[in-house]
Amino acid sequence: MSTEEDTVQEKKTISLKTSDDEVFELEENVAMEFGTVKAFFGDDGVPRDMMMPIPNVHSKELTRIIDFCTKHLDLKPKAELDEAGKKELRKFYKEYMKEDTTERIMELILAADYLNVNDFLDLLNQTVADRISNKSVEYVRKLFGIESDYTPEEEEALREQYAWAFEGVDEDPAED
Amino acid sequence: MALGKKCRSDSLKRSVSFGGAVGEGFVRALGRKRVEIVELGSPKTPLKRQRSACFDFNIDFEDGVPKLEALPREILIKILCGVDHEDLKQLFHVSKAIREATIIAKQWHFAYSTPRKIRAFRTKIDFSEWNEDLDEIEAPNAPKQKRLHRALPSRKKLNEISVNLLDSLDEGMRRGLFMDEDDE
């Protein structure tokens, strides 16, 4: 009982308003994982009960980012304690983005970039990198909807120059 | 699974300032306003990022599918930093904009890390660690390891070497140099 009394502290929260006018209340420690939020409130100056608008972020993305940060905040100190913790963190990184479409990841990247959530952004970037690793040029183009802006002549010249680049490439997987 | 490589975003931000949104291609990108990349921690950061993010956010979403090129150039480069060295050559061919970003990623990231993919064995090494320590393992500017067949040193030489190493190890331990070794 005394422990409960000792640890009860008013949980400070920060309010963020998304592009679709939804207001999220986050625990301060989670919100401070967002570099943009941290900079906004600073050490002093802007009062913490002021609502911060984040007009470039949709509630859908924010929900996911909050989810990541909360879980990450929980796992990170454990990872610094022992090997089991490290393993769990690694597993978390491996599994977290498994089910998402590349499109979804792009949306999250833009949001995480705007909010300056470095850890999540690193994970997202690496996920994309993994998905284009060792894939054919056509696959990468299709994945991202890019049209080649090389003329056929330039393409031919490049192919000759980098013929070895096309060796040992993965077969294009099924539609993402 | 490929590895967590962190692009040295600090140095990237400090000394590189490049064109704003990579839009429809190389030529157009040149015409865009130059967005200065602000150092991390600067109080100006949120506003400037807001502006540049706004700038990028409003374009290049075709049919709701965000294009790779729609990403801020900086992000694109970070992504490409995470791609294996060998694959960068592939990416040259995707488009001119990607090629440009690939070149920058190559210069920035690969100047500071040893390419890991070993062509001889096509399997990926599982460095499933994902933390800052990884950067400490890499030797900066280390040359790519060449798997050449060399004759192993003779046993006699090996013995000499091992003895010397052990001596210096002892010496080091006496001096208390080897501290905080992880106990496995």
Task: Give the terminus-to-terminus CA distance of chain A.
Answer: 53 Å
Q: If you compute it from the alpha carbons, what radius of gyration of chain B comes out, rounded to the nearest whole angstrom?
A: 22 Å
**Beta strand % of chain B:** under 5%
Point out poorly predicted stretches of chain B.
1-32, 35-63, 117-124, 129-138
Gap from first CA to last CA of chain B: 25 Å
Widest sheet, order of strands of chain B: 1-2
Give the amount of beta strand of chain A, in percent. 5-15%
DSSP helix fraction of chain A: 55-70%
Rg of chain A computed from alpha carbons, rounded to a whole number of angstroms: 22 Å
Secondary-structure-derived class of chain A: mainly alpha
Number of strands of chain A: 3
Which bin fits the share of residues in helices of chain B? Answer: 40-55%
Total count of helical runs of at least 4 residues of chain B: 8
Largest sheet of chain A: 3 strands, mixed
Report the largest inter-chain contact.
A-B, 53 and 56 residues
Which residues of chain A form runs of ≥5 with pLDDT under 50? 1-8
Order of helices and strands of chain A: HEEHHEHHHHHH
Q: Indicate the multimeric state.
A: heterodimer
Spatial strand sequence of the major β-sheet of chain A: 2-1-3
